[in-house]
Amino acid sequence: MIRPLLFAACLGLPLAAQAETPVTIALDWTLNTNHIGLVVARERGFYADAGLAVDILPYSDTSSAALLAAGAADFGYLTALGFISARAGGADLVALWATMQHETGQLVYNSDNAAITRPADLSGKTYAGFGSAWEAALIGTMIRHDGGDPVWDTVTLGTGAYEALASGAVDFTLEVRTWEGVNSSLLGRNQSAFRYADYGIPDQQNGYIATRGAVLADHPDLVAAFMRATQTGYTWAADHPEEASAILIAAGDFPNPALVSGSMQAIVDGGYLRDADRPVGGIDADRFAQMARFLFDAEVLTGADGAALVWPGDISDWYDQDWMQP
User: Where is the SsuA/THI5-like domain positioned along the sequence (predicted)?
Assistant: First the structure.
């Protein structure tokens, strides 16, 4: 957590000249290649050069959005759904960054399943799911967009979905192509996939880094220092994928190091960290709004009473990238 007294005592000094200011960031999941720039920035000294001592908090059962909103962390790494849900529900969170410039998720099925050739064929099939309303909105939209009847059976299996699909116990599931997709390839599984964006789903960015509005208002220089060092970490990782993978492997507990290196190469080869002339971490305002509007319209976002939230119209204050300015 940011210590206000320490921070106040250091006012007037260049941040890099101060004693290192402690900063915490909560993760959305166990350590993986989505977080590689954070680990690189810490291990290569980019945070230290910015005058920061960054503690990457271990993943817990409490969501990073909840930890951040409660003040248990200074920054949070959140999924797009996690951030938008929290902000729509009234949490004082501001997105500062988007890691993946394009959607890495995909709907996957066994290639030898002759009954599936297009999303419309999923009607009446069995889906291995994870228990969120987003999944139903996503799958239903894809089937309808392809002219099918959006009716299917769901069994909630969590991460067991991938073994169930491989064994043929279910017909399809969702995966991240830069992680589970890479793992399936390493295991020699013959699987095919449909891209969400080809069937009516906005091509969302994902992997937001956010803070509380109060932190941004009270400590803009510290936010800028943290975010610029983070950007340096991810940019270095994009330029040096093999070395970055080795750094991440050394920092975590990975039973299969080949999955880490393969995932990082897939991220780089797929152009996920860089998109045209947008800087690494840049938020696309149009796509941010499109995804938020999709979630509102699909009634994925609900209030404490369970009722669907109403589209607020202007969400331009949900994100802020002024830290990128020199």
Answer: 32-244
